Amino acid sequence: MARVIFYSKPGCKGGTKQKVLLTAAGHEVIAYNLLTEPWTVERLRSFFGDRPVAEWFNPSSPKVKSGEVVPEKTDAETALQLMLREPLLIRRPLLEIGDRREVGFDVEKIDAWIGLKPVDESLQEMSENLMKQDLQNCSHAKEPSHHHNPQGGCNHHGEKHQKQGSCSH
């Protein structure tokens, strides 16, 4: 079983599902708030490996969705500076296991890397259901009642959630 350092946005529904899946597989998950972590260019860059710069960005970020930031037209240096100023732009989660770092939650890749098979039979059905879901993207960004606001929270059902830039669901 692995010790997974997990950087995500608190309250993110997708991040919660990802952590549940990792925990069900017997991994120790140590969660950190991606939005308040004291990132440096070098440290943040180490999670992206040889991925194209466009894949470093959170496609659900308000500035990406509005077109204010266009990942495909952004160079690495500019991308990192933007992300240091506005961590909501960073694709989530950032994972660190041993000396390897990754970005995003590609179920097949993570299963091959550390394994996602549940350690207990009673967790089998829940794990299988989670693994069938899109755990790579914001799990509610496509919901018609879900709208991000510029402060990084979201507005839905007439409510505003801005605690630490996160939704409460």
What does this structure look like?
28% of the residues lie in helices and 17% in strands. By secondary structure, it is an alpha+beta fold. The strands form two sheets. Strands 2-1-3-4 form a four-stranded mixed sheet, with helices on one face. A hairpin with a 2-residue loop joins strand 6 and strand 7. The chain starts with a strand and ends in an 8-residue tail after the last strand. The C terminus is likely disordered.
Q: What is the topology?
A:
Layout: E1 3-8, H1 13-24, E2 28-33, H2 41-45, H3 62-65, H4 76-85, E3 94-97, E4 100-103, H5 107-113, H6 124-132, E5 147-148, E6 154-156, E7 159-161
Parallel strand pairs: 1-2
Antiparallel strand pairs: 1-3, 3-4, 5-6, 6-7
Q: Report the principal-axis shape.
A: globular
Order of helices and strands: EHEHHHEEHHEEE
Please identify the structural class as seen in this structure: alpha+beta
Number of helices: 6
Q: Which strand order spans the largest sheet, edge to edge or round the barrel? A: 2-1-3-4
* Main sheet: strands, sense, barrel: 4 strands, mixed
- The whole-number mean of residue pLDDT values reads 83
* Unreliable stretches: 140-169
The overall strand count is: 7
Helix content: 25-40%
Q: Beta-sheet strand percentage?
A: 15-25%
Kindly provide the radius of gyration, computed on alpha-carbon positions and rounded to a whole number of angstroms.
16 Å
Termini Cα gap: 29 Å
